[in-house]
Amino acid sequence: MATAPANIYPKFSIAHINPPTRFWAFPVLGGLIKILIMIPIFIELAVVGLYTLIITVFINSFVVLITGKYWRHCYNINTGLLKLGAKIHLYFIGLTNKYPGFSLDVSGFDLNFTYPSASNRYFAIPIFGGLARLVLLVPYFVYNAAISKGAFLGVIISSLWVLFKGRYPETSYEFASDALRLNISQTLYMNGISDKYPSFYISLDHATLKLLLIIFAVSTGGWGSTDSNTNRNSFINNNSDLQNINFTPSDNVLPNYGQQSTPASNPTTY
Fold it and tell me: What is the DSSP letter of 254?
């Protein structure tokens, strides 16, 4: 997988899984079992997501307005929720065999955030700030939705490759990783953790295959959803609604594969 430019935020990387578990690649069955065993985590995600939404919208926005600083506790909870969402998403799509667990920290991959030294007060104005970010992100929503749909289709196809070949294709691994990072970047901007507009960068290795996946997925109406809790992300908690429309506890937590990445109250996410 190509190394992302140094200025890409957030920093995210995960080693290519080797070997993936074939059992999880069984069509429908593997995914359903994963969903069932993660129900306790989804409950935690919903509770923490709701709490995150409340403190981000009703407390942090005023903290930023008055001090020009992002409330540290709110930052920790938001980024923790994104990490939990990322773990859920990566486990669900088979990029890791490690059960997500309940921790708001990461293990098995790198996902690093930087606490903002200062936050834009204008974007913290109730209602106006969230709407302004939404409008600015419209092109990104369109782009992210197309990438997510293509990546999700790649994941579906890759499940058959894992089932019969016992390995995860490089193209899908790379595409799914980039899609998750885009989703998290969108959430960070929407929640005000970053005032830097999210990057459109994805690796151009295997560009032809990725383009074909995007075209096919988009032309057929989208394959599934990268969702927030599942996409939710992202997947990783749609922290996208958290800041006056940030990522709600379920909208960006899991990357949004196949779903229009529309902000929702979200905490985290991938």
Answer: B
